[in-house]
């Protein structure tokens, strides 16, 4: 069973928390990694597909449109993150939560319930931070997961929350959550209305830890942690024991190597990320998203990566990064050529599709004419 005590972990982040980011974080010292929140209703529709070529396990949502490939909702690399990846579930229903968790539990180290995200995609239908307003529902979900998923599979169930309006209300909620049988509580040290630019409220942590400790539940603090060194400094300043862990979000999105005491500069972290993304065939739109986060806006590479369309483009541009982030060679000409070739390929593909369509229509017309001719012959024969 995964042990959360004292661990420094990667936060669940939509888009940023895909496989390449998780593997890079683990390579550079993350103890555990959370995957991005996935809604229960989507997960139960997925098919588990072992990917022998990539050595991954994929949870795939079948396509509803002919000709379109299925969508990989969640991909994990067991050899590299097995026993260290926590699946975050978006849910508002004990029944659906159990069904969804049982779908994926064999490939992850634990299940975490999202009860802290204030974004619309999480709080709609009563999920995410909306669960803080319905503690009975939240506790019901956690008890069901502990009893029907966690204990049967010897896997931990955890929950991530935000602070409530005051310390008393927060402690009352924490006490109820700890009584459900969860193994870990992650607290984002901001209230639901607060935004990430606002300083976190860490003064509640000592009291929260006391309640967690009494129930043998580990505690992880989240909010404005910048790296391993900063996490250890904050924990010491608050006089919290080393059993209290830390969760990094924004700083890890900008540089997944911050879990190391000596994180890489962005221009060294980027090529590592791109190599992993290429190896595991990360969707290029997601790779571009991460480049927009990892590359400083003032660097010319920010614009170069925006122009990339393929994995080869990203790799080529990444190879132009010098030892200090300077540009060894301007990739503009290469990207223009790549773009032209891509457009020609699309044009050729479109032409083949149109030709196939025309041939199909012509064949159908001939079949119809043959049928009409045969029907005409039968009619003349009957009349004769």
Automatic annotation (TrEMBL):
Residues 329-384 are annotated as: Disordered. Its EC number is 1.3.1.91. Residues 336-348, 355-384 have a biased composition (Basic and acidic residues). It comes from Eremothecium gossypii (strain ATCC 10895 / CBS 109.51 / FGSC 9923 / NRRL Y-1056). GO terms for biological process: mRNA processing; tRNA dihydrouridine synthesis. It is found in: Cytoplasm; Nucleus. One of its GO terms (cellular component) is cytoplasm. Belongs to the Dus family. Dus2 subfamily. It comes from the Eukaryota. It catalyses: a 5,6-dihydrouridine in mRNA + NADP(+) = a uridine in mRNA + NADPH + H(+); 5,6-dihydrouridine(20) in tRNA + NADP(+) = uridine(20) in tRNA + NADPH + H(+); a 5,6-dihydrouridine in mRNA + NAD(+) = a uridine in mRNA + NADH + H(+); 5,6-dihydrouridine(20) in tRNA + NAD(+) = uridine(20) in tRNA + NADH + H(+). Its cofactor is FMN. Residues 32-310 form the DUS-like FMN-binding domain. Keywords: Cytoplasm, Flavoprotein, FMN, mRNA processing, NAD, NADP, Nucleus, Oxidoreductase, tRNA processing. Catalyzes the NADPH-dependent synthesis of dihydrouridine, a modified base found in the D-loop of most tRNAs. Specifically modifies U20 in cytoplasmic tRNAs. Also able to mediate dihydrouridylation of some mRNAs, thereby affecting their translation. This is tRNA-dihydrouridine(20) synthase [NAD(P)+]. The keyword NAD applies.
């Amino acid at each position: 069973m995964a042990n959360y005590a004292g661990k420094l972990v990667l936060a669940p982040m939509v888009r940023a928390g895909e496989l390449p980011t998780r593997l890079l974080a683990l390579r550079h010292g993350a103890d555990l990694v959370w995957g991005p929140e996935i809604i229960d209703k989507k997960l139960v529709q997925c098919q588990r597909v072992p990917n022998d070529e990539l050595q991954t396990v994929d949870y795939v949502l079948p396509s509803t449109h002919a000709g379109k490939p299925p969508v990989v909702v969640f991909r994990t690399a067991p050899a590299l993150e097995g026993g260290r990846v926590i699946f975050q579930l978006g849910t508002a229903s004990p029944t659906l939560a159990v069904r969804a968790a049982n779908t994926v539990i064999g490939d992850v180290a634990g299940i975490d319930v999202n009860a802290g995200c204030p974004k619309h995609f999480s709080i709609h239908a009563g999920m995410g931070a909306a669960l803080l307003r319905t503690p009975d529902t939240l506790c019901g979900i956690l008890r069901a997961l502990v009893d029907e998923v966690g204990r049967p599979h010897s896997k931990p169930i955890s929950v991530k929350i935000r602070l409530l309006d005051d310390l008393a209300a927060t402690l009352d909620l924490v006490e109820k959550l700890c009584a459900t049988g969860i193994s870990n509580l992650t607290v984002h040290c901001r209230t639901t209305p607060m935004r990430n630019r606002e300083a976190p409220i860490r003064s509640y942590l000592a009291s929260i830890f006391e309640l967690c400790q009494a129930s043998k539940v580990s505690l992880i603090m989240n909010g404005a942690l910048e790296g391993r060194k900063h996490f250890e400094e904050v924990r010491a300043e608050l006089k919290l024991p080393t059993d209290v862990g830390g969760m990094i979000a924004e700083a890890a999105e900008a540089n997944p190597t911050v879990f190391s005491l000596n994180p890489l500069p962005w221009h060294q972290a980027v090529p590592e990320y791109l190599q992993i993304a290429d190896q595991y065939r990360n969707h290029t739109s997601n790779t571009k998203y991460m480049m927009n986060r990892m590359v400083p806006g003032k660097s010319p590479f920010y614009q170069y990566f925006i122009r990339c369309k393929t994995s080869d483009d990203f790799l080529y541009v990444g190879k132009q990064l010098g030892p200090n982030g300077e540009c060894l060679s301007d990739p503009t000409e290469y990207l223009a050529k790549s773009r032209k070739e891509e457009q020609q390929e699309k044009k050729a593909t479109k032409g083949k599709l149109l030709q196939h369509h025309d041939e199909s229509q012509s064949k159908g017309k001939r079949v119809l004419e043959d049928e009409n001719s045969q029907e005409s012959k039968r009619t003349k024969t009957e009349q004769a």
